[in-house]
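Sequence only, no structure available. Ideas?
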Amino acid sequence: MVIRRFLALFFLLVFCLASAQANQILEGFTVLKGNGYAFELKAPLGWVLDDNVGNDQGLNVVFYPEESSWDKSDAVCYARVRSLDNRVSNIDQQVKDTVKAFRANGNPHVEAKFVKTITTEDASKAQVYFFTGDQFGNNEATAYVLAKGSIHFITLSARNKKAFRDALPAFDALVASYEDLTREPKFNPFHPFPHNY
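Reply:
I predicted one. Tokens follow.
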């Protein structure tokens, strides 16, 4: 079955993505790590974390509703990393590069719109953009976190507007769970041990 995911295959073919490894550490939690980065995500309530099914598409970790599957779900999420370089060194440039790539590859009506900022588990600011205009009618949201040396993005891809709207709360929860594990831990007086905030 051909999966018509909005950004997944284009990111694999067009962008210079950093090599990543995902390790499930506890049920529902995963750590994505690679050269110079490591971050944790937690599966939203009612969603499955799968660090195997997307591997043949270059996706180290994917998420989908419990009652469905990666290839049959109307809405899925995944996480990726892009190393910073002289062409893309910030989120705005990444978004423009994404739109440019889509338009050059048969999607001339793709548009990106900044929607909101989500504060994550470690107090990072994830910038959320909605992508519309895909020739297959897919809708997508991507949250970008600018880290040292790389951009981390978490994407919701849905086959229709209803599935997109229904999955947005789970997407927001997934983004909010993001924690950069390379940051120096900060002392919290309400915890007996230092944690990342």
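The chain is about 20% helix and 35% strand.
Hope that gets you unstuck.
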